[in-house]
Amino acid sequence: MKELTKAEEEIMQVLWELDSAFVKDIITQMPEPKPAYNTVSTIVRILQQKGFVGYEVHGNAHKYYPLISKEAYTKSFMKGFVGRYFSGSYRQMVSFFTKQDKLSLHELEQLLQELKEKKS
């Protein structure tokens, strides 16, 4: 699965939240300053070409919807991220964030609990 650019990911986040939307609906959900209609329309068409977005025709307009779930994209992205930055080791990633004080003891305990539950 291809990795999304920052602009593409921002639009996908909106589509994942809304389930389906016209370009004007996507723009409404985006933070200020709002991008131009043509910019969003172009990015949505690129997402369509990449296989991330499908559409339904409604008169002269297209209503777009995600073809790939947020969970599936996140899983693919994280696998690539961990592979590139932590030699494929999730343990190294957790260790890095723990050392950077980005992962509290409470969060680490929660992770351990989730791992124990998964093994059971």
Automatic annotation (TrEMBL):
Pfam family, one: Penicillinase_R
UniProt KW DNA repair keyword: no
Superkingdom of the organism of origin: Bacteria
Keywords: DNA-binding, Transcription, Transcription regulation
Keyword match Transcription: yes
SUPFAM superfamilies hit by this protein: Winged helix' DNA-binding domain
Family, as annotated: Belongs to the BlaI transcriptional regulatory family.
Protein name: BlaI/MecI/CopY family transcriptional regulator
Organism: Rhodocytophaga aerolata
